[in-house]
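Hi support team,

I've been running sequence recovery on a batch of backbones for a student project. Most finish fine, but this one hangs at about 90% for roughly twenty minutes before it completes. I'm not sure whether the input is malformed or the queue is just slow. I've pasted the structure tokens below so you can try to reproduce it. Let me know if you need the job ID as well.

Thanks,
M.K.
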């Protein structure tokens, strides 16, 4: 069974850092992409970062939404089946509930933004105070 679960949220001041974890089971990153998204009250879901295998599965490619690029970084611990989202230089607009989700790549492209997400975590709250 495919399963993901986030942890690591909290309250941090502007400019601070947090590291979120996404523990996953039932699949490997060779076959499933993982995407991080966030949702703030009254706002639409915003996809912030994702990672997935290349077409030939020789490497993993990560992508970032423009507002977090250079501040957020995905890393993996394949031995522990954990994906991390390191968030630096946090801003109040980064506040929200952060979720990780997993799914198989779209048949037309391996780009992780397009994955067919089928497993979702329960979310972890990130609050950045000004």
């Amino acid at each position: 069974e495919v399963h993901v679960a986030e942890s690591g949220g909290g309250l941090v001041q502007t400019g601070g850092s947090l590291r979120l974890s996404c523990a996953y089971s039932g699949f490997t990153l060779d076959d499933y992409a993982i995407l991080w998204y966030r949702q703030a009250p009254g706002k639409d879901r915003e996809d912030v970062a994702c990672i997935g295998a290349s077409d030939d599965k020789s490497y993993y490619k990560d992508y970032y939404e423009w507002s977090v690029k250079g501040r957020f970084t995905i890393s993996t611990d394949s031995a522990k089946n954990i994906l991390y989202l390191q968030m630096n230089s946090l801003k109040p607009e980064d506040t929200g509930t952060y979720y990780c989700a997993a799914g198989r790549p779209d048949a037309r492209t391996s780009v992780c933004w397009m994955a067919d997400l089928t497993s979702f975590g329960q979310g972890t709250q990130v609050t950045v105070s000004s």
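--
Follow-up from support: It reproduced on our side and the slowdown came from queue contention, not your input. The longest strand covers residues 96-104. No action needed from you.
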